[in-house]
Amino acid sequence: MLPLVYGWITEAVRTFVDSPWLFVLVFGVLLGGAFLPGLPGGTVMMTATAAAAASSDPAPRVAFVYLSAIAGAFVGDVIGYTIGRRYGTRLLAHRCLRRARRPVLRARSLMRRHRTTILIAARFLPGGRLSSVLAAGIARVGMPRFLAVAIPVAAVWGVWMTVLGLVGSAVAGRSVIGGPVAAMLISALVTTIGAGIGAWRARSRLRTGREDAPIGAPAPAGQGTQPVSSAQR
Length: 233
What we know:
Helix content is 73%, strand content 0%. The chain has helices at residues 2-16, 21-32, 41-53, 58-92, 98-111, 115-122, 128-138, 143-171, 178-211. It comes from Nakamurella aerolata. This is VTT domain-containing protein.
């Protein structure tokens, strides 16, 4: 399925490389990526950046690709957060979303103490963006707090994808066809590395939180001190 999606993206980018529809494509895919984890938002942005860099007017087109991607990511995140806040519990109870229930509930349990870590890692983990924005809404994270993390994370992520897209274009010799291919290969590598780093940071943060817990804190359910029976007295 993914090779077909990548092939369609490459063909669409080649078709729209000198058209405003390129920015519409980038915006739409980045927006839809908040709800459809199969949409390769990072690959689309890198591919479009590589193609824009090889176009007849590279500088403004690369800038518009970046702005379109960030706008799409922002709108998608806000819509996903709003859906999670208003309808998240009912959606997770639906049988069609059973597979998404576990990651969303896990992200919700971590969101209050590790909001920044979760939202950063979600940009690199497959399906993480959907889980994180829904979890933020379900956990009732305030909109200002959510945006205070989501906006800069999206902006920095966009810069990173733009740089990698430009590298892909340079590696391919500014070829409109070769640039997207190089961008896709780089995207796969970056996603793998980013997923590992994000998971490691999240695990380290959780471990630190457990170690810093006060000694007198109540023990989790099922792990408390067992009552002493009358026979043991």
